[in-house]
Structure formats: C-alpha cells, structure tokens
Design brief:
The protein has twelve helices and eight strands. With about 250 residues, it is α/β, with parallel strands linked by helices. It has an eight-stranded parallel barrel, surrounded by five helices. The two termini are about 15 Å apart. The structure holds 1,3-dihydroxyacetonephosphate.
Length: about 250
C-alpha cells in the first residue's frame, strides 16, 4: 500500500503575512501523517516561517534548488541551505521552470542526485504539452524525460521518489485531464519505472497527478488505482480547499 501524498505548490504567491495566516488555519486540521503526507511547497522567503510553525502532520517543501553544494551562483539556493532550516521536500523540474527558466533534463537529473544526497524528498515533475498530447507523442515524451531525469539513481532512491505527472495543458487552465486519462498516464509512468528498474520499484513509487486539481475533482482522481496523490497549484492557496484536499486523500 502506497501512502497518499497531497502537495500544494504555491508558485510565486503569498507574502509572509499571508503564509502565516494560511498555516495557522490549516495546521491542526491536517490528517495524521500515518495516513497521508500533507506538504506545502512555498517560495524561499517564507519557508523558515512555515517550518517554525508547522505541527507534526504537515511538511514544508521548496519549489526548486541548485545542484551544487555551494558556489558562485547568484540568486540560487542549495540543498544544504534548505535542509538547514528544516525543509524536507523539494519540487524538481516543474514544467514552468522547464519552459521559462531553461531547466533541462540534465540539470534536473543533477538536482535529483543532490536532493537525495542531502536527504531531501524530491517531487519530480514530468508532463506533455498540448501539441504532444494531440499528436500522439505523450508516451514518447514522458519516457524520454524519465530516462534522462532518473539516470544513475539507485533503485532505493527511486522507490522513495515522488513523481508528479502534470500535463502542461491542464495546468492553471481549469482543464483537468479526465480521471481516466490521468490514471492511464500515471500508469504509463509507472510502467516506464518498471522497465528502467523492476516491479518492486514501480509498485513502491508514488505518482501524483497535477493540473487543475480542485475540491470538486479530487475524490474521483484519488479513486484511481495509479494515482497516489496530487500536486495542486491554485486550489492549494485557499486554506479551506487545502484542508478538503488532504482529507479526500484519506478516504
Ligand atoms: P494548478 O493546480 O493551478 O493547475 O497548477 C498545477 C501545478 O502546476 C502544480 O504544480
């Protein structure tokens, strides 16, 4: 049995006061961490104030990190810096970073290696564009991303990895993939992991769906066999919605 994981991706939203207000509303309403991993991935400026306030059933993650230990990388943040303030998760390779900030599969692979070395839990994002979906290129694209992103990772590392399958055409568009498409594609991602590793690894890895997940569609998505959770943008910004989403994962 894979434990569900619901992660909010706040993207570039929330000032310090807004972040504190949010965590004070959700903190004691999170289900037990024995039943679901509830994570907020926030921007760097509010990570410490969230970590300081988090109760036991909530975890805090970053949305990016650099692959080097330290160095002359103006504007970047390292895994050790995140670790030193109590952050436990990190999103790697979100499609917005791939598209707007020149993230490549090569840099994503380096970041994954570094995250594991630092004992952070990475959430690797993969997903196809509308062009690829409409032209039957989804599986080819996903397999290509996974082969390059996972290169050199051990079986034990991949077993503890979380992959977020996020079709780019469903992000922030209100256009959710149907539960069937989401499940089928998460199943395909799992089959690629089996091909690259083995069945034990594929059965252990947790795969989230992301893209316009809302309180109105979470139940159906979570009922699908290959979907182990959700990576949620817009709906994770509202405390009440986030509480509903994490509880839906427990049902
Ligand atoms: P939305 O839930 O706002 O569509 O964003 C999805 C996403 O990109 C999460 O990482």
């Amino acid at each position: 049995m894979r434990k569900p994981i619901i992660a909010g991706n706040w993207k570039m939203f929330k000032t310090r006061d807004e972040a504190i207000n949010f965590i004070l509303q959700v903190n004691d309403k999170m289900p037990s961490i024995d039943e679901v991993d509830s994570v907020i991935c926030a921007q760097f400026t509010v990570l410490r104030c969230l970590v300081k306030r988090q109760l036991n059933n909530l975890r805090i993650g970053a949305q990016n990190m650099h692959w080097a230990e330290e160095g002359a990388y103006t504007g970047e943040v390292s895994s050790s810096m995140l670790k030193s303030i109590g952050v436990t998760y990190v999103i790697i390779g979100h499609s917005e970073r791939r598209a707007m900030f020149n993230e490549t599969d090569e840099s994503i692979n380096k970041k994954l290696h570094k995250a594991f070395e630092a004992e952070l839990s990475p959430i690797l994002c993969v997903g196809e564009s509308l062009y690829e979906r409409e032209n039957g290129l989804t599986e080819q694209l996903l397999e290509g991303q996974l082969v390059k992103d996972l290169e050199g990772l051990t079986k034990e590392q991949v077993k503890s990895l979380v992959i977020a399958y996020e079709p780019i055409w469903a992000i922030g568009t209100g256009k959710t993939a149907t539960a069937q498409i989401a499940d089928e594609t998460c199943g395909f991602v799992r089959s690629v992991v089996e091909k690259l590793y083995d069945k034990e690894t594929a059965d252990a890895i947790r795969i989230q769906y992301g893209g316009s997940v809302k309180t109105s569609n979470i139940d159906e998505l979570m009922s699908m066999p290959n979907i182990d959770g959700a990576l949620v943008g817009g709906a994770s910004l509202k405390a009440d919605d986030f509480i509903t989403l994490v509880h839906a994962a427990v049902k």
